[in-house]
Amino acid sequence: MEQENQMCGGLTKTRDAGEKEQALADKVRPSLEKEEGKTFPKYVATKYRSQVVNGINYFIKIDVNEPHNFIHAKIYESFDQEVSLQKYEKGHTDSDEIKP
User: Which in 39, 45, 80, 98 has the greatest CB count within 10 A?
Assistant: First the structure.
């Protein structure tokens, strides 16, 4: 497995989302659905980038199976593992780059 050196504040390369990123996305799902006023029929984390700050920012691409199927969510995890939705953008496609 390729090791990537990451500077504090720098973003990682885009990677495939795994169990950890899906768990983070699941923790903020109620907040996201409340903001949108609906429940999503599909909710799968597909890709992500991360950034070490005073905690970790995760920029996660989530497939919600709607037109322009993907949401880009910024999720913050503090060092004591508190998780919160910071912001999100809807209307993305599978090929859109994840940007902070």
Answer: 45
What is the spatial distance between Cα 48 and Cα 23, in angstroms, rounded to a whole number? 13
C-alpha dihedral (28, 48, 87, 8), degrees to nearest 10? 110
d(CA 7, CA 39): 37
CB-based burial, 44-75: b 16+ in 10 Å, e otherwise: ebbbbbbbeeebbbbbbbbbbeeeebbbbbbb
Q: What is the pTM of this model?
A: 0.89
The Cα–Cα gap between 67 and 16 comes to: 22
